[in-house]
C-alpha cells in the first residue's frame, strides 16, 4: 500500500471518529435540553419513596475530631465541617406559584411591577415544599428517643423573635413564620396597618376616616399609641445625631464656635437642641444663641434652656407640626433616622404590646410519617414550605432536649464550628467520612 493510500485511510478513520464524537455531543445536548424542558413544564408530583435498608446510627458517633452527641447534630450537614446531620434525606415534593397580592406575601411598597412592554404585572413567588426525613433510632443520653415533636420544638425555639443566635429562623420566608415569631396574626396586623394608612381623627369631620369592617373604637385605640410611638421616633433621631456627629467641628458649625461636644454631651437639653438643628428643625439662621442659651425652632418656638429642659417629646411635637400629621414616606417617615423603624412600625408595636394574641403553629411546617421497614413500621419526617428565594441551608439548627431547655433556658447552638479539610482519594475526589448520612448522602438542604 502506498504512503498516499495510507494517509487517505487515516484521514477517513479520523473523520469517522470526529463525526461520532460530534453526533454523541449533539445527542447529549439535545437530551439535556429535552430533560430541562420537561422538568420546567411538567407539574411536580410527589413521588412514592421506595424504602431502602440503612444502618441505624449510634447515640454518640466517634469521629477523628471527637465524639458528637445528639445535641451536636444539626438538622442538615454543614459544609466544611464534621457535623453529622439529623436528616436522613431531603426531597422536593411540590412547588407552588403564589401571587404577591396575597396578604401573606405583600411587598414592602404594596405596588405591582411593570413588565417590559409597560403593562402592569403582578409579582409572583414560588414556594417549594420539602420532605425532610429524620433518622430513626436516635436517642438522648438518658435513652429517650428523639421524635419529630422534639424537632418541631427546636424549630419554634429558633423561630422565636427573642432568639438572637446564629441559627435564627424568624426572618425566613416561610408561610406563617412572621405570625409565629411576632405572635401577631397577619389578619390583625393588616387591619392595624390599614388604620394607620387611612389617617387619624379629622377635627373638621369630627370622626375617623371610614374604613369598611373597622370599628372606630379600634381606630381610637390605635391612634392612642401615636405619641408613644413618636417619642421613640424622636429619640432615635437624637441618639443618631449624638452618635454620628459627636465632634467639636459639627457642634461649632451647627450651634456655636464657643461650644464643645463635651459640653453638649453633658446636657440632655443641649443634645436635643443639637438634634433639632442637625435634622433641620432649628431656625434657618442662628437657631442656637450661645449667650442666651436659647433654641429657636423652625416653627418659631423659643426654648430657654436655662429655665426648661427639652427632650424627645419637644422634638416630636415639632415634627408633627411640620408635617401636619402625615405619617407617609413623604411625611414624618421622611425624617426617620437611618436604620431605625418607621412611625407606622412603631405605632403597630406600641398597639400590639398592649394586646394578647397567641399563635401556636407555623403554617408552613408540619410533621408526618412515611412507611419504613416492615408492615407496621414508619419513619418520621418534617414537611417544610419555603420561598425558592431562600437558601434551604439557612433552615438549620442544633437539637436541644425540650426538658433541658425548660430547665436551663439555653439552646445547644455551638459558638464555634469546627472546620475540617476535605480528604481526597487517590482519584482526586473527596471521600465521605463517617459523618455521612445513613444512605451515604449527607443532607445539605439541597434538592
What is the structure about, briefly put?
With 447 residues, this protein is an alpha+beta fold. The protein is 33% helix and 13% strand.
List strands and helices in order, with pairings.
Blueprint: H1 3-41, E1 61-63, E2 66-68, E3 87-99, E4 113-114, E5 120-121, E6 124-134, H2 148-159, H3 177-182, H4 186-198, H5 216-223, H6 226-244, H7 248-254, H8 261-265, H9 268-278, E7 288-289, E8 294-296, E9 302-304, H10 312-323, H11 343-352, E10 365-371, E11 378-387, H12 402-408
Antiparallel strand pairs: 1-2, 3-6, 4-5, 6-11, 7-8, 8-9, 10-11
Q: In terms of structural class, how would the helical and strand content be classed?
A: alpha+beta
Described by the principal axes of the CA atoms, the overall outline is elongated
Q: Strand sequence of the main sheet, in spatial order? A: 3-6-11-10
Q: Largest sheet, if any?
A: 4 strands, antiparallel
The topology string of helices and strands comes to HEEEEEEHHHHHHHHEEEHHEEH
Helical residue percent band: 25-40%
What brief labels describe this structure?
single chain, 447 residues, alpha+beta, Dipeptide-binding Protein, domain 1, 4-stranded antiparallel beta sheet, 3-stranded antiparallel beta sheet, 12 helices, 33% helix, disordered N terminus, disordered C terminus
Could you explain how this protein is built, in words?
- It is a single chain.
- This protein is α+β, with helices and mostly antiparallel strands.
- Among the domains are: 61-110 and 119-172 and 365-408, Dipeptide-binding Protein, Domain 1 (Dipeptide-binding Protein, domain 1, Alpha-Beta Complex); 225-352, no CATH class.
- The protein contains twelve helices and eleven strands.
- A hairpin with a 5-residue loop joins strand 8 (294-296) and strand 9 (302-304).
- The model is unreliable at 1-10, 24-49, 51-65, 102-110 and 421-447 (pLDDT under 50).
Amino acid at each position: 500500500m502506498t504512503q498516499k493510500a495510507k494517509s487517505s485511510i487515516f484521514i477517513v478513520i479520523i473523520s469517522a471518529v470526529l463525526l461520532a464524537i460530534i453526533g454523541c455531543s449533539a445527542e447529549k445536548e439535545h437530551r439535556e435540553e429535552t430533560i430541562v424542558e420537561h422538568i420546567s413544564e411538567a407539574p411536580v408530583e410527589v413521588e412514592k419513596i421506595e424504602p431502602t435498608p440503612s444502618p441505624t446510627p449510634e447515640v454518640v458517633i466517634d469521629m477523628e475530631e471527637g465524639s458528637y452527641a445528639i445535641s451536636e447534630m444539626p438538622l442538615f450537614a454543614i459544609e466544611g465541617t464534621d457535623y453529622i446531620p439529623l436528616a436522613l434525606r431531603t426531597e422536593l415534593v411540590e412547588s407552588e406559584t403564589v401571587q404577591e397580592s396575597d396578604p401573606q406575601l405583600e411587598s414592602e411598597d404594596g405596588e405591582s411591577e411593570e413588565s417590559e412592554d409597560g403593562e402592569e404585572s403582578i409579582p409572583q413567588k414560588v414556594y417549594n415544599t420539602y420532605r425532610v426525613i429524620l433518622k430513626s433510632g436516635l436517642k438522648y443520653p438518658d435513652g429517650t428517643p428523639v421524635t419529630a415533636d422534639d424537632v418541631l420544638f427546636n424549630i419554634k425555639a429558633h423561630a422565636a423573635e427573642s432568639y438572637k443566635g446564629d441559627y435564627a429562623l424568624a426572618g425566613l420566608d416561610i408561610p406563617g413564620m412572621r405570625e409565629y415569631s411576632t405572635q401577631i396574626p397577619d389578619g390583625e396586623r393588616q387591619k392595624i396597618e390599614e388604620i394607620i394608612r387611612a389617617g387619624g381623627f379629622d377635627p373638621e369631620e369630627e370622626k375617623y376616616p371610614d374604613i369598611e369592617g373597622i370599628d372606630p373604637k379600634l381606630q381610637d385605640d390605635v391612634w392612642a399609641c401615636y405619641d408613644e410611638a413618636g417619642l421613640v421616633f424622636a429619640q432615635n433621631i437624637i441618639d443618631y445625631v449624638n452618635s454620628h456627629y459627636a465632634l467639636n467641628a459639627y457642634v461649632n458649625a451647627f450651634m456655636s464656635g464657643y461650644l464643645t461636644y463635651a459640653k453638649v454631651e453633658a446636657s440632655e437639653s443641649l443634645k436635643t437642641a443639637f438634634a433639632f438643628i442637625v435634622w433641620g428643625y432649628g431656625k434657618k439662621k442662628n437657631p442656637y444663641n450661645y449667650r442666651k442659651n436659647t433654641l429657636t425652632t423652625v416653627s418659631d418656638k423659643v426654648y430657654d434652656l436655662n429655665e426648661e429642659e427639652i427632650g424627645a417629646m419637644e422634638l416630636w411635637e415639632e415634627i408633627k407640626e411640620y408635617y401636619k400629621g402625615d405619617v407617609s414616606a413623604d411625611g414624618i417617615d421622611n425624617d426617620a433616622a437611618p436604620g431605625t423603624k418607621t412611625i407606622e412600625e412603631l405605632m403597630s408595636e406600641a398597639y400590639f404590646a398592649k394586646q394578647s394574641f397567641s399563635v401556636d403553629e407555623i403554617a408552613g411546617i408540619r410533621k408526618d410519617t412515611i412507611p419504613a421497614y416492615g408492615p407496621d413500621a414508619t419513619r418520621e419526617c418534617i414537611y417544610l414550605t419555603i420561598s425558592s428565594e431562600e437558601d434551604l441551608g439557612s433552615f438549620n439548627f442544633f437539637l436541644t432536649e425540650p426538658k433541658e431547655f425548660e430547665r436551663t433556658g439555653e439552646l445547644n447552638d455551638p459558638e464555634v464550628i469546627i472546620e475540617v479539610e476535605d480528604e481526597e482519594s487517590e482519584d482526586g475526589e473527596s471521600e465521605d467520612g463517617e459523618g455521612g448520612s445513613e444512605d451515604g448522602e449527607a443532607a445539605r438542604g439541597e434538592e
